[in-house]
Amino acid sequence: MIKRLLFLMTLIAVVIQSHAITFDRKYFKPNGKNFTGSINHLYYWPTDKTTDKVTMLYYKTSTGVCIFKGFEISKSLEERLPMLVIKYIGRYITGPKLTTSKSLSAAIDATKKAVDIALDQKYKNLILNEGKILVQDSGYYRGHFHSKWWMPNYYYDYVPAFSDDSVKNFLTNSVTDARFPHLKYVSDSLKLLNYHHDTKSVAKWGHVFKKVRNSLGRKLSDWAFVKSTVSNSSGFHKNNDSCRFTLISVSMTHGKKYPIYASVSIFGWHATYCNFYASDLRKLVFGQPFYSTKGCKTDYGALTSDVNFVEIPKSDIHKYSQLGYFVFLIDEGHVASIFPDSNEEIKVIQAGDKTGIFELKAAWPAAQTSNAVRCYLLLGHIKKEAI
Question: pTM of the predicted model, to two decimals?
Answer without folding.
Answer: 0.86
